[in-house]
Amino acid sequence: MGSDHLLSVAAFCLAGAMTPGPNNLMLLASGVNFGFARTLPHVVGVMIGYCVLLLAVGSGLGQLFSAFPPAYTALKVIGVIYLLWLAWKVASASAANGAAQASRPFTFLEAAAFQWVNVKGVLVAFSAVAAFTRPDAFAQTLFALVAISTATAGLSAATWALFGSGLSQWLADPRVRRRFNIGMAAMLVASLWPMLAD
Questions:
Q1: Is residue 24 helix, strand or coil?
Q2: Cα separation, 176 vs 84, whole angstroms
Q3: Which pTM does this prediction carry?
Q4: How many CA atoms lie less than 13 Å away from 154 in the CB half-sphere?
Q5: Among 76, 114, 154, 161, who pairs with 39 as Cys (CB 3.0-4.6 Å)?
Q6: How many CB atoms lie within 10 A of CB 68?
Q7: Within 13 A of 7's CA, how many CA atoms are on the CB side?
Q8: Residue 141 CA neighbour count, 13 Å, CB half
């Protein structure tokens, strides 16, 4: 496995991790509403949860969805319902006094479990395993993919959470923060379009 292969994997993983999607929008909103330190379990949960998902896809989960398409449809339905619920929670996260109404940000386990219903993440995982593992060196190439994906997922999650934390001082006005949260909720709902159009 040469450096060209590793660079290609890194470029793919970084692009998939950094682009806006449900994870990054929720991390941004959590950084704004709770700060970076309280969002850190969410960051680590995304990183580890995606690592486990990628290992599962590489170990045969993708074959299950190919052999039994209703399982993928069920995943999409669950993902849509859950994302709509999350959008509602984000939209209603500002109390009248400007403090965050939600009692806490995502826990590590909630963030890790979310990876299994985040259809964007699942599709990126399938694409990555299909594109960057080789039958003649499957374990080695899968390990490299998982290691690079875990690092880029952590970098992306931390970046979005830090960005949100940095925005927090600009959103101190309760009315401005409420508009921000409603905007984030609208973007979460809009992020459903690619999976619904598929």
A1: helix
A2: 22
A3: 0.80
A4: 11
A5: 161
A6: 11
A7: 3
A8: 20
